[in-house]
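Let's practice the habit of predicting before peeking. Look at the sequence and jot down your guess about where helices and strands might fall. Then scroll down.
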Amino acid sequence: MIMSIMYKNEKITYLLPPIVIILCNVYLFYIIHFRNDKNYEIPNTARKISNQNEIHHQRSKYAFATLATPAFCMGAVVLGHKLKQLHGDKYDRICLIPPDVNETWVDVLSQWWILIRVQEYKPMMHFRRSWTKLRVFDMDEYEKIVYLDTDLLIIRSIDELFDYPQLSCVPDVNPPQICNTGVLVIEPKKGTLEKIDHLARVEMVRLGIGDQSSINAFFRKFTPLPPYFNTPRANEPGLQMLLEKNQSRIIHFICKKPWKCGRDNLNCGCGYFDLNQVWWDAWDEACKNNNCIESWDEPKATKKPKKNKS
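Done guessing? Here is the structure:
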């Protein structure tokens, strides 16, 4: 009797791993092919809400673009200010904003950007909000777009980036064979987002939850940009010369952002703390003759954003 029970237990233990694997595959198949998260599908909806007579000149088929979520609107102010300061209105400046960016921030950002209200895009609900930036790959009204994350500080002219082909980017610090998607040269084409979306859903276990891994997997290879086009603010070998000798054109504020550190906590981030003050100087310069608000609150996903009364 005891031997029989032990045999059955061993048999169950032997069968358990393949059963778990089968159940996991069934669940993944379900959420990929049958689960319909209405908030995160890919509707072809985009609405320009800026005054085009003030900003949108369409002088060129080239554009700079970014994505501003509520927690990163302050970064978008500085980014837009530096782009306008260095390049004027030679190129359009496009800023994608999700539904929870309120009307107060719309008024602020429209001083520097053509704002396009877009449905937030994430292949799965638990993926990062930065996936929404992949919508720029479908903006084929432009021949070429230079995408820039909002946690960047532009130091000097960068329009030579438009001379590079798709997909151009600075190699990541670790591992260097990976494209860092903070700065991207893109040649938009309708349907690209749908293809990336399909890849993300089919291979999400391997790719993880980051938009960067899916972009790398989709394009497979990239044209490396010089590191001064995307220099992380970090104590990393090889970056110190660019930062200390002021040779960088774009500083990337990885880790905690200057606006989240605050004005009184400048020793915050991943090294080179004096760059926090450089960012705040750019903010003050941008807001000297423009309307700004110092706020980076991120609304909770379960609540609808409240619109500020004008």
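How did you do? The chain has a mean pLDDT of 81.
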